[in-house]
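Re: your question from the hallway

Yes, I did run it. Sequences:
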Amino acid sequence: MEPDQMKKMAAEAAMAYVENGMIVGVGTGSTANHFIDLLAGVRSRIDGAVASSEASAQRLRDHGIAVLDLNAVGTLPLYVDGADEANPYRQLIKGGGGALTREKIAAAASEKFICIADESKLVDVLGRFPLPVEVIPMARGLVARELVKLGGQPILRQGFTTDNGHIILDVHNLEILEPITLETQLNQIPGVVTVGLFAQRPADVLLLGSGTGVKRVPM
Ligand code: 5RP
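Structure:
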């Protein structure tokens, strides 16, 4: 089965968490796009959505779904998003699409965070996927040197600016054995806006599309 079909299966499974009258937090990427397209089918029974990127906001609007400001909504009952990697503890690497900052805000503001992905994203140890770090442009060199001290190899994402006007350093060669500790350490480097490690606030549920159906973690 193609990975995209497995992503769609995971998105379909996430629809079971959408309740009448909800304002739904929506992530970014190809898996989240499947979820947005499915939300269009129930738009009359939800009160709107909060988007984690300009791209997702536009896709929601194109489907006639109201896009709301998180400040006006407060706590999100549900946030659904994809991931670049997930471990069995539901800790994630995110930011392959560059939307990590707003994704982390939405995840932190949510009561329930459902991560949807194809099963290839499940790993024992995070770090094979380069860890995205959003950085204030002036601090690029400083942050890169600190990342090297921690054993990583930061590479500037070429020609890319985030929705917030910042750059991204993709950090290669990290074997993330202690995700919460590393997230805390990286958050303390001046100039770091957001680290694409979602360990302090992991997903509550992973829904992984596979050739034999959707696997749920925890079962
Ligand atoms: C965007 C993300 C995405 O969730 C992540 O890159 C996964 O993308 P896809 O669903 O296309 O595989 O974090 O910033």
